[in-house]
Amino acid sequence: MSLAISHSVTYDVDRVRRDFPILQRSVRGRQLVYLDNAATTQKPQQVIDRLTRYYREENSNVHRGVHYLSEVATAAYEGARTTIQRFLNAKSEKEIVFTRGTTEGINLVAQSWGRKNLRGGDEVLITAIEHHSNIVPWQLLCAEKGATLRVAPVNDAGEVIVEEFAKLLTDRTKIAAFGHASNALGTINPVRQMTELAHAAGAIVVIDGAQGVPHLPIDVQEIGCDFYTFSGHKVYGPTGIGALYGREALLDAMPPWMGGGDMILSVSFEKTTYNALPYKFEAGTPNIADAIGLATALDYIGSLGLEKIAAHEHDLLLYATERLQEIKGLRIIGTSRQKASVISFTLETVHPHDIGTILDQEGIAIRTGHHCAQPLMMRFNVPATGRASFGLYNTRAEADALVEGLKKVLEVFG
Ligand code: PLP
Question: For residue 103, which of 280, 274, 231 has the smallest C-alpha distance?
Fold first, then answer.
C-alpha cells in the first residue's frame, strides 16, 4: 500500500459532521471520537427527520389499503426500492428484495436457491476472510444437503489468493460466496475477477456487500454477480433494514423461503399461488419506515459524492496507518493493497480488550474482539484485535486522538 498522502480539498468534513447530531456529544466527559463504523454507522439528521416525518405524517400499512395514507406509505416504500435499484445499478426494481440486513440476505439465498439446487457431493466455496454471516448459513445448507464447504486461503497481507480460489472452483462448485470488503481487515476483494472465475466454473455468485456499499460505488451489472446484499445500518441508515439484489431470472425460479401475508396472490387450504417479484420474498408487514430511511441515507451519501467519500476515507486510512507506526509494538493485521478504511491491530504487551477500555475512558470508541471472523483470527494466530474503522465524518484529528490514546494505553500497560 502506497503511503503518499493527498488531502481532499473538495470535501468539507466539518460541514458533513454538523449533519450528525450524535458526533456533537461527549462521552465520559470527553468529546466523542467514533471509530467503530464497521460495526455500525451514525445517522445524519436527514435520516432521523425522514423517520420522524414518516411516523408523524405517513404511517400506514403498505400495498393493501385503498385509503390515502396507505397510498402515501406504499409510494414512499416502493420509491425506496427504486432508490436502491438505481444505487446498485440493478436492471429492475423486481431484483431488489428488502431484508433485515446482510445476514438475512445471505440466509435467503442459502435457504431458497441453495435448498432447491444443492445436492450431495456439491460444494460451496467461500474465502478465509468471511464474516460469520457468510460462513454459518452455508454450513447449515451443506450439513442438510451433504455438500462440502471449501475455503480459499488468504496471504499474509490478508488478501484472498485468487489463484487458490480459482483452483478450488470445480464442476462440483454450485455457489461461490465472498465479501466485497472485509470488516475485520479492510481487504477489498477483486469481486469482478472472482465472479468471472466462478461463472466460468458454472457456480452462482453471492457477494456480501456489508462493507462494500459504505465505502465503494457499486454496480452489480458491472460486477456481474448473481446476488449482492448489504445492511442499512452500516451505510448511515437505520438498523433492521437492508436489501438483497438478485438477478431476476434466478429470483423468479426460486421458491419463497418464508410464508405469510403479502407474498401470495391467492390462498386456499388446498393451494397457494405466490406473488410476483420481489413480493414473493417479502412475507408479512415489512419494515416500512426503515426502508424509507435507508433510501434517505443512500440519497444523502449520493449528495456528498461517493467518489469524494472514498477519497476522504482513503486519505484517513493512509494518514492513520502512517501515524500508528509511532506506537511501539503495534502490529497492523491486514495490509492489503486494496483496502477500505479499517485498521486492525494488536499491541505486543496489551490485550485488545484493555486497549478498548482505556481508549473508552478517552471518549474513543473502537471495537475489540474477533469481529465475527474467528477463523480469520486463527489464520493470523491472534485471539482478537483492536479495530479502528473510519467513516465519512471522521477526521485526521480523530486519527491523532487515537494515536495519543494508544500512547496512554502503553503508559498504563507498557
Ligand atoms: N458481513 C460483513 C462483512 C459484516 O461486516 C457484517 C456486520 O458486521 C455482516 C456481514 C452482517 O451484517 P448484519 O449484522 O447487518 O446483518
Answer: 231
